[in-house]
Amino acid sequence: MLYVIGLGLGDERDITLRGLEAVKKCDKVYMEAYTSLLSFGLSSNGLSTLEDLYGKPITIADREMVEEGADIFLSEARHSNVAFLVVGDPFGATTHTDLVVRAKKEGIQVIAIHNASVMNAVGVCGLQLYRYGETVSIPFFTDTWRPDSFYEKIQRNRSLELHTLCLLDIRVKEPSLESLCRGKKIYEPPKYMTIPTAIEQLLEVEQMRRESAYSPDTACVGFARLGSEDQMIVAGSMRELLEIDFGAPLHCLVIAGKTHPVEEEMLDFYSLKNNFAE
Amino acid sequence: MLYVIGLGLGDERDITLRGLEAVKKCDKVYMEAYTSLLSFGLSSNGLSTLEDLYGKPITIADREMVEEGADIFLSEARHSNVAFLVVGDPFGATTHTDLVVRAKKEGIQVIAIHNASVMNAVGVCGLQLYRYGETVSIPFFTDTWRPDSFYEKIQRNRSLELHTLCLLDIRVKEPSLESLCRGKKIYEPPKYMTIPTAIEQLLEVEQMRRESAYSPDTACVGFARLGSEDQMIVAGSMRELLEIDFGAPLHCLVIAGKTHPVEEEMLDFYSLKNNFAE
């Protein structure tokens, strides 16, 4: 049996009772490392708060292991209970869908235990979830690679008066280009896109395209560490948010479409003036 | 302090550890009744499983109470810790946003504790969450009231190759027309739209409009009791799902846009042939 268990967004206390019960039944516990090392008190050496809570060791499964080494834990799951822990909800990322497909194909029973994800927790800012269009991803621009397919999607959402959730790039365990050339993988330090970087890139693309999908005056909401006790949520124009230090990752950004009165009242609590008056 | 706590989708074990801690700190516990009476073992007489878990009584707050009688629990929240429990995630419904806005305006500190909602849990079927367009609501048609604004939204999503989540109508504590005429409120029994009813209405509108937003052959996924142990998920065409008895509420429906190979592999596990072979 393979349990795919969402841990939610904050820390070890965001697991559900159902999720915790399942972990306790499992013989082996894996945890995806893609985003998890951030908030869950896990480090490569030393017991984590999660391990204390579960009373058993956790094996960190990085992306390579999930994609290439899945055979190991699938064969374990055939004969025993295996937990695969995922930050947020289990089905936020394609990687986990792949794993579930493989397990099911091999006749392994899979039980998913849901939790909050960024996709629904952004509702906290007051912009109604049913008024979002397609979600976009903003990748880190490099000197030679500046993909901007997000532009049309934002443009379309805004022309339909819909809000847009922008997921910001995370680069964990990327082999450095230099090391690849030398034939030996050395990994870059992890890199998480900040809200100001995302906005810089967004505005750069707008300046190139000049189709007024958005502007420095467009209303946005920046979220850092959403769901944690020290989460930071600020509503303001792109120009305003560009100047704000949101602190530690993860960050994400919502570009507002047309807002309704209740949405505006709620956003107001997160506006610059109210945020920094407290 | 007002804690707005998401309970998740299944039963009492879907609360998070953080949510349970908060409930235990509260002097007064309210629970929205809009959808909650279904799955959480609550009845008007008799102790519920939730009350057993929390070790304290729960006051059911129906829609009227939340909208009209909010003064009571806001005044309590000024001087003590009050929990307001919500099925799913706290910000799934506008009603709760209203309540939070009112509390914040009165200077009451509000803490939201997130959980899974239908909006992200539908990810379990394999259709990727970032490929959904705007969410639509399908209201019960009556003889005189057949609003079909969902049609253009579905049409638009499908022309963009995006999936559409359809939330199906829930009518709880609606005064009967007859009783209103007599000047005394008598409530209709609760009514929950089933997947076949939703599809009938969808096809009726398509027959009227004839703009091919979708057809009886369009691929869909029906979800009943999503997140519960007895959840039922079936992928099939509208024509196929029309014939299926999904059992007890709540139901929701996803109309697929263009599907990718990984999405198709996953959907296949939920197809009619695989669903009823088990």
TrEMBL record, chains A, B:
Catalysed reactions listed for this entry: 2-[(3S)-amino-3-carboxypropyl]-L-histidyl-[translation elongation factor 2] + 4 S-adenosyl-L-methionine = diphthine methyl ester-[translation elongation factor 2] + 4 S-adenosyl-L-homocysteine + 3 H(+)
EC number of this enzyme: 2.1.1.314
UniProt keywords, alphabetically: Methyltransferase, S-adenosyl-L-methionine, Transferase
GO molecular function terms listed in the Swiss-Prot or TrEMBL record: diphthine methyl ester synthase activity
Keyword Zinc: no
GO biological process, one term: methylation
Segments forming domain Tetrapyrrole methylase: 1-241
Role of this protein: S-adenosyl-L-methionine-dependent methyltransferase that catalyzes four methylations of the modified target histidine residue in translation elongation factor 2 (EF-2), to form an intermediate called diphthine methyl ester. The four successive methylation reactions represent the second step of diphthamide biosynthesis.
Family: Belongs to the diphthine synthase family.
Annotated HAMAP family: Diphthine_synth
Protein name listed in UniProt: diphthine methyl ester synthase
Organism: Coptis chinensis
